[in-house]
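Risk register update: the risk that structure generation would not scale has been downgraded. Supporting records follow, first protein first.
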Amino acid sequence: MCHCGKIFNLDAVVLDSPDVRLLTEFYAKLLNWKIDFINEATCGRVSSPDGGCRLLIQLNEIYERPVWPEEKSFQQQQEHLDFEVSSQEEMKSAVEHALSCGAKLAEAQFGHNEEKQTDDWVTLIDPVGHPFCFVIW
């Protein structure tokens, strides 16, 4: 419990990238969010149309693409994003949209539900290597 008397709101999730424009434009297209700004020398930002969370893409000139799933002695993911979908049909549509935006389907998938013969989540990789998932909660 914070004893500072202030409640903090999440302003943005920050992703490192070797190419600010590439990743900012990818997430704007993927999410249909607006691009607030792109400064290729520092960062870019996209915002949710409902005023919710924002994604900030930060230049990292020595960025190392993470390996997913994780492997010892290789650069590992530091975070990943989950995007909620409501049905298998929406999952399929979301995956197709992400692929058309430049994402790649992760080779390793762990969200298959054998009992239902459906996917509870599908993992994709953005253009600079960050994994993200479409998830049915």
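Supporting record for the second protein:
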Amino acid sequence: MQFIKNFLAEEDGPTAVEYAVMVAAILMVCIVAIAAIGTQTNTMFEDATTEMQNHGM
């Protein structure tokens, strides 16, 4: 029990939690951005393939 009291009283515990929350938020933004770019890239290649097929290539 004393360990928990000391952990909460010190600055290290909350600081570590804050950093963990920031890292999680950054990761979520990165994942969303990568997913959006992947979808746009896939659409671009599908459009290019369709255009080539329509022009007999």
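The longest helix spans residues 12-54. On this basis the risk owner (M.S.) recommends closing the item.
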